[in-house]
Amino acid sequence: MSTVLPGTRAAEAQDVPRPLQQLLEQQDYLFRAVTRVGGGIVLAVMALVGLFLAGNGIGAIGEVGLGTFLTTQNWAPETNDFGIAAVLWGTVQIAAVALAVAMPLALGTALFITEVATGWLQKSLTSLIDLLAAVPSVVFGLWGAYMLQPNVVDFSKWLSTWFGWIPFLQVDGVDPGSPLRDTVPYTASAFIAGLVVAMMIVPIQTSIMTESFRRAPTGEREGAYALGATRLGMIGTVVLPFGRGGIIGGTMLGLGRALGETIAIYLIISPVYAINFHVLEKGANSIAAMIALKYSESNESAMGALMAAGLTLFVITMLVNITASAIMARSRSGAESEG
Amino acid sequence: MTMQSASGHALAVFDPPDGEALPDPLAGSDAAELDARAVSAWFGERKVLDRVSLTMAAGQVTALIGPSGCGKSTFLRILNRMHEMVPTASLAGQVLLDGSDIYDPGRRVTLARRHIGMVFQKANPFPAMSIYENTIAGLKLAGIKASRVEKDFLVEDSLRKASLWDEVKDRLHQPGGGLSGGQQQRLCIARSLAVSPRVLLMDEPCSALDPTSTRRVEETIASLRDQVTVVIVTHNMQQAARISDTCAFFLAAQNDPGAIVEHGPTEAMFNYPQDERTSDYVNGRFG
After folding, report:
1. What is the ipTM of this complex?
2. What is the pLDDT of residues B128-176, one digit of tens each?
3. Measured between CB atoms, does A240 come within 8 Å of chain B?
4. Exposed/middle/buried for residue B58 (C-beta within 10 Å: 0-12, 13-18, 19+)
5. Is A223 within 8 Å of B126 when comparing Cβ atoms?
6. What is the CATH number of the domain that holds B40?
7. A219 in reach of chain B (CB within 8 A)
8. Domain-embedded: residue B172
9. Which of A326, B83, B132, B190 has its CA 20 to 30 A from that of A307?
10. How many Å lie between the alpha carbon of A174 and the closest alpha carbon of chain B?
11. Which of B225, B198, B232 is nearest to B32 (CA)?
């Protein structure tokens, strides 16, 4: 026989939420302790690096003043005439060239791997991309300086000859009408450094985009195909909207890496300490390459100046990476079809 | 391509984008007969369907019934060339839409799928799109241009046919993913209807829905009769009995490919089955 609940509730029953606790097993305690220590160490190292750079660099910034530090192009710590403007500009310029080349390349590669290639081709391309990510940057630097540069300067020249009317593609000091093959003004430029960095960031961008495209729901893909979609139509309707977080996040993680890239740029550029708007022109610089270049010849005060430059780079890359992971974490939250 | 408006006028709305270069032999606006001839299917080495022939009459509802794993979903996916999406899949036989083979090598797979729409077991609206955009997603995918007025008309017409209009007419521009499961499924039906298919395939469209939503979808199917040919896979005997005109019973013995045991008018299948296995299945004695 069923019971009908009384209409009035028992007055004596406490109707407040009770605390919920659970007794953990020994293993769980241990596991929690180990993971906490691991996570803690990562955070501590991160904080220590930041503190170290700040502690050593802020003094140098204070000597010239923050405003001067941010706007001075020259780098001469011995005469207290130094600033981040030129190298920061160079860093951004090289990273911009790298992104402009790498992003479409990575997007196309990721779409090819997930949507076009099948079977062994798909598998071997995926592992090749991961292998490419493991190539040391010094190797990329050598390849860029001795293989890519001699072959790409003619393209640089062609670009500046035909598109030199776009201000940043202009190259000073050459006569486009000259019959001599004078490519020296086009070497060691931000453009070539950017190309090499692009090759280095394509793998990480590709693998993040591949991962996000691969997770695009089969149900939605089939829904698009069942409406008579072409593969391109399906990609535009389902895969790209779904993978938007991966595209943006992967691109920005690549940007983070491009900003911090050191040795490959160091091997290619011929360093200048002046803002150079012409990307195809000889002479470029970046914060990381400058630190590597100046490190061995620095006394204590010059070291402080380099620390200040390092601090700037640290802050910028942190911001870029935090933005990237925030975008990736938020993508497609709550919008997925249920189930 | 013409489209029947609610009031019965033929509204010349869209030219197929690829109309002139390749005349579309499947074109037409009415429900079409679908005729499967000796269809066999394999996944890799494993044969899952053995020479299945079935005629699905124009403007009627055909139900495919049978226990799990008997190949009825595979058969359904062969009917609009979704089977070949699986990399190892292969098949034999013909599928004729009004007498012309959709697997003809000179035929575009996209056109076949546009004429033979499909609704899936799990509702799959495009989450990045609004209800409005979802409804006419097929136009965009087919590259068909339409004016604002034509789109508005098509959205209302399709949503009405799918019995969803009254529930969503005030929030057409909200995301399709925000609807309930049953509404999402009817949105998917509306989306399929918006490209004026001549056949609509449904793969257990109600298996994830509650009884009320199921009833709405069944009413929708009933109202589509005569306008499109409906082929529906269902595990629910009562549903097959309620909505279908003809019925086909699939069965696969252990480790053997599936085949049709018996097919015919639904009433006869349920009341006077000729085969003992059909009788056992429709009366719930196995499966």
Report:
1. 0.86
2. 899 999 999 998 888 888 899 999 999 999 999 888 999 999 999 998 8
3. no
4. middle
5. yes
6. 3.40.50.300
7. yes
8. no
9. A326
10. 49
11. B198
